[in-house]
Amino acid sequence: MSRRKPLYTVFVGTDSGILKGIEFTSCGANTKNYPSSSTLDRGNEITALLWRDENEKEIYVGHRDRTVSLFDTQAESFIFRLPINFGKGKIVDITQRKEHILVAVESGHIGTLFKCEKSEQKVFSDTLHGVKCTFKAKPTLKTIKGHPGHATQFATGGCENNLKIWDIERPNRAIFMAKNVPNDMLDLRVPVLVSDLSFMHDNRTVAVVSRNKFVRLYDPRAKRRAVINVKYEDSPLTSICILPDRPGQVAIGTAHGRVTLFDLRMKIKYRNPVVYKGINGGIKDLAAASPDPPFVYSVSLDRYLRVHNIDTKKTVHKEYLKSRLTTVLVKS
């Protein structure tokens, strides 16, 4: 009798360029490594993962050395690897808008990779997102996320680069630009340190976490400043993801190794968040795909992939993956 082929439902990127496929079973976890190159080094570090389409059979992989590869989960092989030729710095994120794959780099530039039936064409647009150095800190881009309710819109944010919402069909100017919070009690400007963002379940509001420890909720229909602005603990916030079928609820990761459940619904007053324990390293990335079972996935600096049950707060799976982990992608 032939052995069943593992069904990998979780994919994790590493700093050496290895893409890891993980299948959780009742007896533990099956793990397989997929090297993207014959030479594995920091230049091959995986910095972004994105499903190519809703079939979730192919994955776009962004690398530190400014290349984008496509991985076929069924053939278990990399199809191609293309260099990008715009901006400066590593690839920070990838998102999909209509027939375009948007690739963002640290310098604040975003290019377009067009999808084709047989292969991908290396065709990039002009800069969609430019940043100006108006402060001493060098502006950088940290994240880009597609708008689930508008096929052409996406949001960006980073260091001294506050939340902006763009339309790919009108790239010359952002359709929404967030305004920084008022000066602090000493009348000093509060730095903008956006580390991650996510569109909420209503497809209108945007949740943002920052390295200066704030969770903010923006409503472009109301005003440019955040409608909710909450400081959480004394730890930089590194990652955020929405929880499926749980309106207003998000999971947030911190640099001190906490995964926290926040409720950002306007009608509910802020209350003590739910904390998922057992993590010993700063959170690098979070993911939550299906509401059944209600799991949140996290990768951290201690090289563990952890799966927590959102309701019971228990650690369902915990797998040591040897390499330094950078990002996680989960099948829905």
From TrEMBL:
InterPro entries: WD40/YVTN_repeat-like_dom_sf, WD40_repeat_dom_sf, WD40_rpt, WDR74/Nsa1. SUPFAM superfamilies: WD40 repeat-like. One of its GO terms (cellular component) is nucleolus. One of its GO terms (biological process) is ribosomal large subunit biogenesis. SMART domains: WD40 (SM00320). This is WD repeat-containing protein 74-like.
